[in-house]
Design a protein that fits this description.
This protein is of the alpha/beta class. It has helices spanning 62-68, 72-76, 81-91, 104-116, 129-137, 145-151, 163-184, 192-195, 198-206; strands at residues 8-15, 31-40, 43-51, 97-100, 126-128.
Length: 207
């Protein structure tokens, strides 16, 4: 159990996608946008966002541009994947717990590192908040990020599929779920000594 001052990193990536279900030969999703919210002592202490140039399939499909509402020019002016890893290693210096919505972000990051022959940048714990949410509420299916926050009667931050906005939305759900966990955790049962004031009892029998 981490203490209150334990650092957390709320992370979201957006990826390239093929034009349709028929993937080009050798295609795999590459990170093209990163959003990070760094939290210590329940306070946002840093945030970071950037577009990332894909290495292996540098030209975005029309479907990808439309779905993520981004342009080829924005991606072409982004940081390299090597620079992204450098940034992530910098954030890892405090060994934060990395929290994502779903497992895809970390899977794609690992695969991209492998393809680029770069070391995986994180050394601490990773938590999949979507899986925690599903288990906590007994959901049959894993809900999407925006649907989950709406089930709390809240709205997501900014635009869906904007990496930094989704990282902030993940942080907001984390706070709500942690609050619910504390509320529902049963306090320890009092001992019989705590339930009965023996000094008062003895006085009564002494009369």
């Amino acid at each position: 159990m981490q203490g209150k001052d334990h650092p957390y990193l709320f992370l979201d990536f957006e990826f390239t996608m093929p034009e349709n279900k028929t993937k080009p030969s050798g295609f795999f999703p590459e990170i093209i946008e990163v959003g990070i919210v760094s939290v210590i002592n329940d306070q946002v202490c840093d945030q970071f966002s950037a577009y990332v140039k894909p290495t292996h399939f540098p030209i975005l499909t029309e479907r990808c541009k439309s779905f993520l509402n981004i342009t080829q020019e924005q991606i072409d002016q982004g940081i390299s994947f090597t620079e992204l890893i450098r940034w992530l290693k910098e954030y890892d210096r405090l060994r934060p717990t990395v929290i994502t919505w779903g497992s895809m972000d970390m899977k794609v990051l690992r695969h991209n590192c492998l393809q680029s022959n770069l070391p995986f940048p994180f050394t601490g714990e990773h938590r999949d908040l979507a899986m925690e949410y599903k288990m906590f509420f007994g959901e049959r299916n894993q809900p999407g990020l925006r649907k989950a926050v709406q089930e709390y009667g809240k709205e997501g931050v900014g635009k869906p599929h904007c990496a930094l906005d989704d990282a902030f939305t993940t942080y907001n759900i984390f706070k709500l779920v942690e609050k619910d966990k504390k509320y529902l955790s049963k306090p320890e049962q009092p001992t019989i000594g705590e339930r009965v004031d023996f000094s008062q009892l003895l006085k009564k029998f002494a009369l």
